[in-house]
Amino acid sequence: MTQLYLSNLSLSHFRSHRRAVIDVDARPVALYGPNGAGKTNIIEAISLLSPGRGLRRTSAQDMARRPEALGWKVSGLLHGPTVLHEIDIWSEAGAARQTKIDGKAAPQTGLGRIARVLWLIPAMDRLWIEGAEGRRRFLDRVTLSMLPDHAELSLSYEKAMRERNRLLKDMVREPAWYTALETRMAETGAQIHANRLQALAALEAAQEEAQTAFPIATLELQCDMPSEPEALRRALSDNRMRDLAAGRTLIGPHRADLEGTYAAKGIAARECSTGEQKALLVSLILANARAIAADFGAPPLLLLDEVAAHLDASRRAALYDEICALGAQAWMTGTGPELFESLGNRAQYVEVTEEDGLSKVEVMP
């Protein structure tokens, strides 16, 4: 089976880790230790191997170990479907994050072409009951995991929209100032919408083809906007006076929402119990991983923070079985090794401890 996995992860002055080196093989990795020991910091470091700000969405400056604040570095040996890559990501004294792939400077978006990383963290448990922004962010992470160019499209759209919104707030009425911005927003916005629909179709297909112990979620993209670039450009132009009154752009993919339904029960995800909502999220992450495996040629790195604590023993065992069947290197955190007991020797174990604000890691034999 072709795999994508890390064989080495090295952290320097990253969060609570002054120095950490983890050498592992392609099996899942169970990180265990008390709360606050630094387990999540390890998987946050791995999340930086994908475009974006990582699973905590914080600045490079906030990732530096305190009180030194010298800057930080994350390095990894990433085994891809066909090639081994050396990746270095670092920030010096709070400066913007920098990336090297195989010793050469690279943009963050370049990471999306060699790696696929998915995560499920406790903050996502509120996905179905929080505002639309969180669901859009979730959908765009799913889309980016399958279509790496989605990141550049999103950046281009957001930049043009910020400039247009600045004109709106300044009550600029001259059409010539808007034309080029609205054309760029229409071109990138229509493609963002198309990418999202493509990603949802891939998720749906992956769920239909899988035998899983987790409930299937039916997803629907809600976005009141024309889907063709020229029609979207005209809509932006026609809506300009309304946008001037509001001081912001009121139509476009940035206003989309994602509706989820527990398929077997026909109940909206937001109305499900906490346990059902968690199970739906796990199901979607696994479906996303299967879709990536089919397209990329290998399953993604999975980062599952405290996921075991919110599942009963049978669901935990089912999750581990599906991860192993998928062939994914999943990095999972938990407070004790007993949470991973059903994995047995199918996984490797790393103990994380903390003393006087300094995290320590030990790969168990």
Structure, described:
There is one protein chain. By secondary structure, the protein is an alpha/beta fold. Helices cover 37% and strands 24% of the residues. It contains 9 helices and 15 strands. It has a 6-stranded antiparallel β-sheet with strand order 2-1-4-5-6-7, covered by helices on one side. α5 packs across α6 (229-238). The model has no long low-confidence stretch (mean pLDDT 95).
Structural class per helix/strand content? alpha/beta
Task: Specify the helix fraction band.
Answer: 25-40%
Number of DSSP helices?
Answer: 9
CA(first)-CA(last) distance: 25 Å
Q: Report the principal-axis shape.
A: globular
Adjacency order of strands in the biggest sheet: 2-1-4-5-6-7
Overall number of strands:
15
Tell me the series of helices and strands, N- to C-terminal.
EEEHEEEEHEHHHEHHEEHEHEEE
Spans of 5+ residues with little confidence (pLDDT < 50)? Answer: none
Strand content bin? 15-25%
Radius of gyration: 22 Å
Largest sheet: 6 strands, antiparallel
Write a compact overview of the structure shown.
By secondary structure, the protein is α/β, with parallel strands linked by helices.
State the main characteristics.
single chain, 365 residues, alpha/beta, six-stranded antiparallel sheet, six-stranded mixed sheet, 9 helices
Itemize the secondary structure elements and their pairings.
Layout: E1 5-14, E2 17-23, E3 29-32, H1 39-47, E4 71-79, E5 84-92, E6 98-101, E7 104-105, H2 111-114, E8 117-120, H3 132-146, H4 150-169, H5 176-209, E9 217-222, H6 229-238, H7 240-246, E10 257-262, E11 267-268, H8 274-296, E12 301-304, H9 313-326, E13 330-334, E14 348-355, E15 358-363
Parallel strand pairs: 3-13, 3-14, 8-12, 12-13
Antiparallel strand pairs: 1-2, 1-4, 4-5, 5-6, 6-7, 9-10, 10-11, 14-15
Helix pairs in contact: 3-5, 4-5, 5-6, 5-8, 8-9
